[in-house]
From TrEMBL:
The chain crosses the membrane at residues 12-32. Residues 186-207 are annotated as: Disordered. It comes from candidate division WWE3 bacterium CG08_land_8_20_14_0_20_41_15. This is DUF4340 domain-containing protein. The keyword Membrane applies. Keywords: Membrane, Transmembrane, Transmembrane helix. The lineage of its organism: Bacteria, Katanobacteria.
Length: 207
């Protein structure tokens, strides 16, 4: 500190003032640039997160498809009614899918390699591919992998990169069900109930 003070005293007051101003400007510029770099990194992480990628509203899509070797659920909006594999679907069950997307909680990044993704089921061959479309154009797509260690936890990946995340929510268990679970259940009319008469005279049980 003494050396810096002695160095500044060797200049005129005006020169010293200008040097201090220059140092201050350099410091401020460096701080702003550093903050910008940090902000860009944060934005980058947010953009690659599957949660932000699939944050959809029902109004933005008219079709979505859950497909794997064990799952084949094709839902499409027709005449303002959702249909599952060309059959009328339970509208509340479909709306719940969009609610699950909104509530999806991305916890942490767990894999960035092909081998790691395969071990948790988010590889292209074994994952459940969940694709959302609007007027025939793909809006969003995610790959759903295996269940996690706790209830309603599972692995999810954006197919645009190799980053697999651990997620929490009901989305996985709702989309891997059979197509019949999405179909609208019609109430069965069994007709009026007819009382069955007792045969024989009443039994006297008085003592």
């Amino acid at each position: 500190m003494k050396k810096i003070t002695s160095f500044l005293k060797s200049f005129s007051p005006l020169t010293t003032f200008l040097i201090i101003i220059a140092i201050g400007i350099t410091f401020i510029y460096g701080a702003i640039k550093y903050q910008k770099i940090i902000s860009q990194k944060i934005i980058s992480v947010k953009q690659e997160s599957p949660f932000n990628y699939v944050k959809l509203e029902e109004a933005k899509v008219d079709e979505f498809y859950a497909k794997s070797k064990d799952v084949d659920n094709h839902l499409k909006l027709k005449d303002d009614q959702w249909q599952i594999n060309d059959k009328l679907a339970n509208q509340d069950a479909v709306k719940q899918i969009f609610s699950d997307l909104e509530k999806l909680d991305i916890a942490e990044l767990v894999s960035q390699t092909d081998d790691g993704n395969k071990s948790v089921g988010t590889d292209d061959e074994t994952a459940v591919s969940l694709t959302f479309s609007k007027e025939g154009k793909e809006v969003a797509k995610v790959l759903i992998g295996k269940s996690g260690a706790s209830i309603d936890s599972f692995f999810i990946r954006n197919p645009k990169n190799k980053n697999t995340y651990l997620a929490y929510g009901a989305l996985r268990r709702r989309i891997i069900v059979g197509a019949t679970e999405f179909e609208k259940k019609e109430a069965v009319d069994t007709g009026p109930t007819t009382p069955i008469p007792l045969e024989g005279p009443p039994t006297d049980i008085s003592l």
